[in-house]
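We modelled the chain as a single entity of 282 amino acids. Its sequence is:
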Amino acid sequence: MQVYLNGAYSELNEATISPLDRGFLFGDGIYEVTRVVNGKPFRLDDHLARMDEGLAALKINLPSEVRAQIPEIHFELLKRNGLETGQATIYLQISRGMAIPRAHAFPDPEVAPTVYLSAGAFTPHTKLHESGISAITIGDVRWARCNLKTVNLLANVMATNTAKEAGVGTALMVRDGVITESPNANVFGVKDGVLYTYPVSHYILNGITRKTVLDMASDLGIPVREIAIRDTEVDQLSELFISGTTTDVQPIVTLDGNPIGDGKRGPVVKALQDELIKRFHA
């Protein structure tokens, strides 16, 4: 695998980052994962806009000449790794950079950010899109700036591992009695033909696929309410699903051992899945 690190392309096993990098020491950085279909990154401009927002919020100053090169780096990595056909993902991470001494305060003077990108082949979870998955609910113990796509993912890691230990596909996190997100995707529910999802706030990441789902719902004539789903309202849902860059539109057919609707993929999910495939290949 060829990767990009701080201005140079190399084999993955040749790329090295200092142990004093603040991304390693503090989780002081942001990341993005972009889906690629036949050499075309899906909604790349949206991913890079969110990257810019995250960098600004963390006060990481990426030189303008480096920022300008990032789209080109995406395409160069696809070429170097033979990923110009089929499906792939591109991972991008930017940390504040390497600083001595180790200190919580931002380095003064500023240091150069660490910029890393990699690309790999991807296979959609087609069978799970049809069969659906089971999920459990757990408490949402993350910090209150979940709208920033930072590399501080330990709470998400622990939640995912809890779901794995429970033998289910994912966990849905609950804060103050309402469902916020899964560890790596946004959550939607269908009640009386209306699509519900947690509104944009500091408590969720405004996912690129989430935006796509809302766009598709509008085009398909599916009513949408950006209103949080209470954990006590789950039994009123006819459909429940998550959306994300690598999960696409993934139905949840049981939650905490109880079926959602008839326990099968529903018509709203199927319509959104079909439309998403069309948009991937547009």
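As a brief sanity check on the tokenised model: Residues 64-80 form the longest helix (17 residues). The mean pLDDT is 98.
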